[in-house]
Amino acid sequence: MKPKFSAFDFFLYFILFCVVVSALYPFIYMIAVSFSGTVPVLKGEVFLWPKQFNLDTYAAVFDNPQIGRAYINTIIYTVLGTTISLLVSAAGAYALSKNHMLLRKTFMIMVVITLFFSGGMIPTFLVVRSYHLIDTIWAMVLPLAVSSWNLIVMRTFFAGMPQEVEESGKIDGLTDVGIFFRLVLPLSKAILATIGLFYGVSIWNNFFSALLYLRDADLYPLQIIVRNMVLQGSSANGAGNIGGDSMIIDEALKYATIIITTVPILMVYPFLQKYFAKGALIGSVKG
Q1: Predicted TM-score (pTM) above 0.70
Q2: What HEC string does the chain produce?
């Protein structure tokens, strides 16, 4: 029996279609401009499909050594930061999920308070500077290593894990640390993939920490380069702006750089999609 669609259903599909178009069009337009030739871009003839297809814009982007160095830095920050964040968050969440933990409620109150209040930018900067993290890769990793929200979601997930898992580990002579690493984490792939995606995307797109803590251009992440290009109008090859036409060419270079920074993190989603919904739902619903 074929499903019946009401007028309200068609209205919802129309709204969803508009949302999808509004979200995809800017991305499609940037791709079209970045792959188009100079003349169509100058004339404003590019709409949804590249004209005079070429890779000159991307060649100009990759020829800039600053882009390559920033790309490597961003990958290092993302991999290292996500690993540390997952390890610290999972360990803290697992401990807080145990009812017999000493001062458990006190620690939970402290964690929840940070959802609404923070020390502020200047106190945080002073703490980072006091630990001599300025102009190091750790300044991009450690200050934002733990998200209180992600920790609470993971805690809820661990609280719903069967007690038989831990009991079997204790029978085999495992310590609490051994149970955590050898039994709990292997059974928590869904929540680890979900929270890892949250952390990875956050670190990949992070530029504010670099503005605060980094002075050495060799440590800049990719997002700082993109930000400087967008705000200052500088092209990927370092050329200055010469008149209005040069600004349009610079736009193509900016778009190409934005595409290059966005595609890698987008490619991660298909591999984590099967864990994403499951991990997010289990971690947020079970209590």
Answers
A1: yes
A2: CCCCCCHHHHHHHHHHHHHHHHHHHHHHHHHHHHCCCHHHHHHCCCCCCCCCCCCHHHHHHHHCHHHHHHHHHHHHHHHHHHHHHHHHHHHHHHHHCCCCCCCHHHHHHHHHHHHHCCCCHHHHHHHHHHCCCCCCHHHHCCCCCCCHHHHHHHHHHHHCCCHHHHHHHHHCCCCHHHHHHHHHHHHCHHHHHHHHHHHHHHHHCCCHHHHHHCCCHHHCCHHHHHHHHHHHCCCCCCCCCCHHHHHHHHHHHHHHHHHHHHHHHHHHHHHHHHHHHHHHHHHHHCC
